[in-house]
Amino acid sequence: MNLSNIQSLPFSLPEALLAVGVVGLFLLELVVKRKAVLGELALVITAAVTCLVAMQSGGQQGLLFSGMVALDGFSIFFKLLLGLAGFGAVWMSLGSNEMRDEHPGEYYALLLSVTLGMFYMASATNMLMAYLALEFVSQVSYVLTGFIRGSRRGAEAALKYLVYGGVASGAMLYGMSLVYGLAGSLDYAAISQVMAGLGSGGVDGAVVAGAQPVIYLALVLVLAGVGYKIAMVPFHMWSPDVYEGAPLPVTALLSVGSKAAGFAMMIRFFYPAVSAYDGDGNWLTAAGVDWQSLLVVASMVTMTLGNVAALRQDNIKRLLAYSSIAHAGYMLMGFVVMADDGLQAMMFYMVVYYIMNLGAFTVLLMVLNQSGREDIEGFKGLAWRGGALPAAAMLIFMLSLAGLPPFAGFIGKFYLFAAIIRQEMWVLAVVGGLNSVVSLYYYARIVRSMYLDQPAEDAPGFVADRHNGVLVGVLAVATLVFGVWWRPVVALADRSLSFFTG
Amino acid sequence: MPEALGLQHFLLVGAALFCMGLYCVLTRRNAIGILMGVELVLNAANVNYIAFSRYGVGGVDGQVFSIFVIMLAAAEAAIGLAIVLGIYRRSGSIDVSQMTSLRG
Prior knowledge:
The complex is a heterodimer of chains A (502) and B (104).
Chain A: H1 5-8, H2 13-31, H3 36-56, E1 62-64, E2 69-71, H4 73-94, H5 104-123, H6 127-145, H7 152-183, H8 188-199, H9 212-230, H10 238-245, H11 248-273, E3 275-277, E4 283-285, H12 291-310, H13 316-335, H14 340-371, H15 388-402, H16 408-422, H17 426-451, H18 466-484, H19 487-496
Antiparallel strand pairs in A: 1-2, 3-4
Helix pairs in contact in A: 2-3, 2-5, 3-4, 3-5, 4-5, 4-11, 4-14, 4-19, 5-6, 5-11, 6-7, 6-11, 7-8, 7-9, 7-10, 9-11, 10-13, 11-13, 11-14, 12-13, 12-17, 13-14, 13-16, 13-17, 14-15, 14-16, 14-18, 14-19, 15-17, 15-18, 16-18
Chain B: H1 7-27, H2 31-55, H3 61-91
């Protein structure tokens, strides 16, 4: 089904609710006296949106708004994940001392607008829509990064984010203009037809001979735009600074939300739009343009650089930033296999990554609230001064991030490695394996600090607050449960991998 | 009579603008100079879109796209200048090489 603007409205209820929430929160801040209500309202809205998306799954698929966005299994899967990311960020903000005195109406409205933008990033099937969604997410993220007034680090991080983001999305825009010139259309469906025509030797009216290098250049430029969103080397430079300077709930949203949205947009562009499906689970690069080997190298460099740089970090926010760069590298392993099982492994890994990374950030938030410290000293002897449960949860998240059994992270990595080994990409598999070993060192350092280091004599006791504790508990249990009972999530990822192209 | 103006000429202008924008971003130390470089990159793409729309088979899509880009560039400039202004109020300088409180 391919619906016009008015007909599409009933199918975009989640987005509509988010948009109403954004405007409503801005207005309500002017009239409501008790500001805490605004955050709770935002929490209810994100929860309701996630439920609405869940209700859409298994329903009709099709193109909405005259081919601008797709409603298919793939977009619903990512919208669920992104809705949960928004929910997690709002929940963390409610429990953060950092955000207590800032303008709550504006802040939560901006969080909801990032979520809205990410929804459209995951479902855009037109280059104009994809670019608008990406810029929507980026520009609101710049504001959120520098949201705390009077924070020097926040302002500096926001400027760095803005400069890198502006250049990367400008490069992507330029690349898209080349694709538009070659294909004569902004629609992914039309682009894929032209690309397929190029592959079989038939030259379309819009395509001139010798288009191959131009396509290659265009794809590399587009890669700059999405690569910056997912923090892929060499477009990762902003991420440690921004993660460190931004308020912690925003950092968490950037690391689990906008990374997943960036991957969703990347998959939609590089798979259905510029590659051909052979109907048997494999994808072929169109027009003989070999972007695959470029990304194999990018994947290896990304994970290695992320892990090696994380080794010498004392600031946990910065450490998690490098760890999230490394994880972008692992997820790229699923991207380069050019097969459905790789994409499924990626989608499953993104769910697992959401759970364990959000958990790690929430434990860090508890420590930050208590001691005002976000470096490794704040974790010293955490288990022996009243923080036994948060320390146990952090242990689970860290070992899961490192990819040890029996946690969910192990299963996620197992599927990724299985996908590349099936394609016999041995070098990538070995590099990925070595990286997992290296990463264990810095994750274990936090665990050692929590359990083996004795707290200082004058160290204040740790009182776990219930609000953040609930989120940490749920995520820790999920990490354990999905480590032994992962079938349902993998099945969901399998079912969700369907692109509606019209 | 000189050769008529064609698609290639516009693409050359676009490519030149793109390179100048990148060069500007990479070499400027003044934050506002960097923002101007970003604008150049965006406008390089705009030239491409309009040229492809005029000479190619893409219809008016490209021209619509460039209007959206102009709008977004304005939004980006507003946000960028607000951030730069905030930094200037706090530290009295917008030299990016002096922004070193985040590193490692």
